[in-house]
Amino acid sequence: MVITGLIVGIFGYLATHYQLSTLKQIMYHDFVSNKAEDIAATIDYSSETALGIASLFSKIPVVIKAFEIAHTGNIDDESDPKCHEARLFLRKELSTFLDGYSSSINKKLKLHFHLPNAHSLVRLWRDKQTKRNGKWVDLSDDISSFRNTVLDVNKTGKYVKGIELGRGGFAIRGVAPIRSTNGKQLGSVEVLISYKSILASAFKDTGADAKRSLFLFMNADKISITTKLQDQSKNPVIDNKYVFVYGTSKLDWKGLINGKFLEKGSKQLEIIQKMG
Q: For the domain that residue 143 is a member of, what is the CATH number?
């Protein structure tokens, strides 16, 4: 009787333990799935917001005038003086709009104007356009090799929103066409929202959320685009396939995340449980 009772007790424990483990897996799966849905919804809302703000600048008369100035020159020449004149004009005429935005939320509006050939006309959150050999230069740099949304908007004349890689990494973007009064495609305007801010807002700073972290990785074959993510001391590469981009905490993820896990996670929701 004692032996039988012991065996029944053991099987009862094993069954209960199995059920609890299964329940935990279901809870983890549901939590991660719900969090992924929350992030996707936030991305969609943010891209709508970005597109809405960009659209506000697409028909302003001073913007149309600036593009008409640029088109009197050679827009294929990144150092064209007429494009530079248009760039200075936009900085001056839109400064009050940008100052009003930054004073209200304490951050700069990332407003970007593009020429129809997918050259950058002006990034209005910077004093100068881009870096060359470690020095800032003010020219209409060519972004056509990696900014497909800009090419699409200027080809189709339609509005575009979503996530796209740039030199700084992932960004949520809303891109609107800019047309002349007679309907000619002059270029496009874009608002960027940081992808980091979306991930950072996914968890609260208190309670159980304070112990949770999110980590963003990118396919390593895109590293030629994201020039700001090429420092492997900050953005290490895993198995020559994935690049660490950003984490919501300073947790050492290297003992938790490997290339095999990321490979599976790139195809479907993947959950692992590690004790300790």
A: 3.30.450.20
Q: Is the pLDDT of residue 202 over 60?
A: yes
User: How would you classify residue 71: left for phi > 0, otherwise alpha for psi between -120 and 50, otherwise beta?
Assistant: alpha
Side chain identity at residue 160, one-letter code: V
175-181's contacts with Cβ under 8 Å and 24+ in sequence apart are 175/51, 175/54, 175/149, 175/150, 176/51, 176/54, 176/55, 176/57, 176/58, 177/58, 177/153, 178/58, 178/59, 178/63, 178/64, 178/67, 178/113, 180/64, 180/67, 180/68, 181/64
Q: Which comes out higher in pLDDT, residue 97 or 228? A: 97
User: Are both 58 and 111 inside the same structural domain?
Assistant: yes
158 is a domain residue = yes
Average pLDDT, rounded, for the chain: 87
- Domain span including residue 224: 203-269
Are 101 and 135 members of one domain? yes
